Amino acid sequence: QVQLVESGGGLVQAGGSLRLSCAASGGINSIKTMGWYRQTPGKQRELVATFTSRGTTNYADSVKGRFTLSRDNAKNTVYLQMNSLKPEDTAVYYCNMEIRVSGWGDYWGQGTQVTVSS
Question: Which helix (H) or strand (E) holds 65?
Fold first, then answer.
């Protein structure tokens, strides 16, 4: 069974930094896309940053220049370095990956809370 385990969330002051990690396990053959989404109560989950199937990166306009996506393919792990954090970044952050086991599937982490105070 594929599992995505997230870590790195917490409480920081505006202007601070945080790094999120997400590691996948469970008989993985390959990974096509990897990235991060976030969600606040009453709102739909929105894209923050992703690696595409071509290995390029996509960032939401609101985080460009502040957040940086990286990965360690050997460890099936994706990271999100978040700098210059703003209160508007407060949300539950979810890791997402397209993973092939027997076939391709879309998987989500459990979510990690990021809170940025003024």
Answer: none
